[in-house]
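Hey, I'm writing a tutorial for new members on how sequence and structure tokens pair up, and I'd like a real worked example in the thread rather than a made-up one. If someone can provide the structure for the chain below, I'll link this post from the tutorial.
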Amino acid sequence: MPLDNGKVMIPSPLAKTVLSFDLGAPTLRLLISMLHQLDLRGVCGPNSPEVSPVLWASCADLRERVGPKGSNSAREIRDAARALSTSGLVEYVALLNRDTKLQGQCSALVWEEMRIRNTSNYVLVDLEELGHFRSTFQIGVYLNAQKRRGSRAPQFILPYDFRVSEEANLRRLTKTLETVAKVLDWICFTALELREDAPEPEHFRVRMIHPAARWHFHAYMKFTRPRAVWRVDRTGKMKFDPKVARDARADLVEADDLGLNHQISDSA
């Protein structure tokens, strides 16, 4: 049996598909923990069976992995299993032995992606980190961040939700980025970028800074037609007027040219 490092490699197309099902956060966490169980049993790979094997797991172990931690209640896992059973992502899932054991089997759609994975296009999910996220939106942002963490200039785009106000969009995004930044210990810059043909919202762009990132000329502060720029880290958020952000970036580039070696924390 493979060693358990608490992580699971999910093919990027599967991660995108799973998010499109609009499942609740507990249901998403339960599904991802089932994918982790596939790895623990060493059933994926060139000699994998054509049909997904049946999985067994301790509900206590699942709670410790992906939450709710410190709880002896099976209610959240029971509700998540009920939602997952009708999603089309599993053949079946059930709680047995007075809700102490979970039994389930992945659907053909999920198994085909997991059994022979493309190791050049995946999202590495840490179950300990996953357990911190309490909404589907938070999990989606986390998966986007994890997919791009190996990039020299990690960034991604999130759609603008036209069903709610700009203030509501910003509040949800910055609060989520605070949570993700705290878990990953990263710094994020984000902006609402406007359409080229009209002063209307187009999308949010998120750029991330971590020790392995290699942004040139502090380009993490450069956005196209931004309404405002936000810096978000584990301690909170700070709003910049776009002109202030441009001037701050210019100062940092000039400091680099002078060899002053300013750190990103100095730009706050």
